[in-house]
Write a structure and sequence with these properties.
The chain is α+β, with helices and mostly antiparallel strands. It is 57% helix and 8% strand. The chain is elongated and about 90 Å long. The N and C termini lie far apart (88 Å).
Length: 427
């Protein structure tokens, strides 16, 4: 065991390191603060929490202007002086964030979660109720959607600084470090998240946790490998642990379905689209049946399948039509359930724009082609294609009509779809 500071107990690898840190590393100025905080780890967590809250407040400033916290009913927190955040699906209407629902201070959200978990522990509530209380560290109690981005990160640090002082084997402390890893991933601090999750896996192995728990931690770690650009490493780990999930939890378990989602994503990133499509064809019907059409995992599986359909170099036009149709079906679901600002919603919109562009490259008719267009129930009129990939100001962002057509009577129209129910070759 290395040397440690006699006042604050900060540990060093040796006397030389300790002396350097005192003289040139600033420890002489921080030592009392570290001791008052409860040690170096607690001091660091407190500072990281403060930084994360400031980042979340700044990010949410436009979204929360003129609002008050739904918990304490104040605009500025009376004790911490912090501003407001909003990181769930509350209040989203018609493409914008509106209303005060879901607007809160990170401190208020953290205090709410802390009190609920403490009551569950004190009253020895059953595990189901305890888990519902713990969910307040990551899920909004109003809209029941997970927080995301910088708000999730701030709550992750809040959770970790609350429980890190407990013994290493304490289950609440272990859940807190997992929560921190998720928060860092959500805010795209991928290397930091990777370090936290590797530390958690090492700790749980040292404590002799069950195979099921180790599998779950490995699944989280694989996600961080992928987000950190270590795609081959992520795929190797996912391939190793997926059979274990099927064995211990079965294909209808939400954890197994979540892992299948990550597995398919890793396959897609590495261009192994046939394998990804094969896995998703098995998993999507199960997710729809078990989780429902509107669950985030189900929606994301649909997006991945559509991407695998149209990204494959061997994709046919029918594949691309199917991809666009699937994404067009998922887009309003995501907007309604998660709100327009949620990463799932914006990600689907991005994939839809890309799929539409790829489909446009497979158009059946060239400029100058003679065609017939359906303009009413049974009325087909002749004309000539004069423009491909047509767009005008009233169109939805990212949408291009396949063709603009000049009819034989001189009128200009556009074909909204490239199929025989809308436009066909002239007789």
């Amino acid at each position: 065991m290395g040397k440690k500071c006699g006042r604050c107990s900060t540990r060093y690898c040796g006397r030389t390191c300790q002396e350097y840190h005192w003289k040139d590393g600033g420890h002489d100025k921080l030592c009392k603060q570290i001791k008052r905080s409860g040690g170096a780890e607690q001091y660091n967590a407190n500072n990281k929490y403060t930084e994360a809250v400031a980042a979340a407040v700044e990010k949410c400033e436009d979204d929360t202007k003129g609002q008050t916290c739904y918990i304490c009913l104040e605009a500025v927190h009376p004790r911490t002086g912090e501003g407001l955040v909003r990181g769930c699906a509350c209040g989203d209407r018609d493409g914008v964030a509106s209303g005060s629902t879901g607007v809160a201070h990170v401190s208020c959200l953290a205090e709410q979660a802390k009190i609920l978990v403490a009551e569950a522990e004190e009253n020895k509530l059953d595990i189901k109720v305890w888990n519902e209380r713990w969910d307040r560290w990551h899920t909004c109690s109003l809209c029941e959607q997970e927080y995301h981005g910088v708000v999730y990160c701030a709550l992750g640090w809040a959770c970790w600084k609350t429980y890190l002082g407990r013994p290493e084997a304490d289950q609440t402390r272990l859940l807190a470090i997992s929560q921190l890893g998720h928060g860092l991933s959500s805010s795209e601090h991928h290397e930091d998240a990777l370090s936290v999750k590797e530390a958690e896996l090492s700790m749980r192995r040292r404590l002799g946790d069950s195979e099921q728990i180790i599998l779950a931690v490995q699944a989280n770690l694989a996600g961080s490998y992928s987000l950190s650009g270590r795609d081959a490493q992520a795929l190797d780990l996912l391939r190793d642990i997926y059979p274990g999930f099927l064995k211990h939890y079965g294909e209808e378990n939400d954890q197994t379905l979540g892992l299948a989602l990550n597995y398919a994503s890793a396959l897609g990133v590495l261009g192994r689209f046939e394998e990804a499509k094969s896995l998703l064809r098995k998993s999507i019907p199960v997710a729809r049946r078990v989780l429902g059409e509107e669950f985030n995992t189900t929606v994301l599986m649909g997006r991945l399948y559509a991407e695998a359909l149209c990204k494959d170099d061997r994709a046919s036009r029918d594949d691309k039509v199917e991809a666009v149709a699937m994404l067009e079906e998922l887009s309003p679901i995501a907007r309604r359930v998660f709100g327009p600002l949620h990463p799932t919603t914006t990600g689907i919109q991005c994939s839809l724009t890309t799929a539409r562009r790829k489909l446009l490259l497979c158009l059946r008719f060239a400029i100058g082609a003679r065609v017939e267009c359906l303009i009413s129930d049974d009325t087909w009129v002749p004309g000539r294609v004069i423009k491909l990939h047509y767009h005008e100001s009233g169109f939805e962002p990212g949408y291009f009509a396949p063709y603009q057509i000049e009819l034989d009577d001189g009128k200009l129209i556009y074909a909204p779809d490239d199929d025989d129910e809308c436009i066909r070759a002239a007789s």
